[in-house]
Amino acid sequence: MRMKLDYEAAKKMDGQTTEQKVPGVIVTDIPDDKEHDEAFIKERLKEITEDPNVKLTGYEKE
């Protein structure tokens, strides 16, 4: 299932990572049985953003 993930993550710019979190939105596929599994969704978001400290601020079906 397609899910829209709202998040805040560090931004990489010119090889440097900002300390200030920047808001963003990603649309990705999540298995149907993991639709309400927030821990799985957070791990998926960490993989996509490559930021171990990413903050999930919301999610919904696309």
From TrEMBL:
This is Uncharacterized protein. It comes from Alkalicoccus halolimnae.
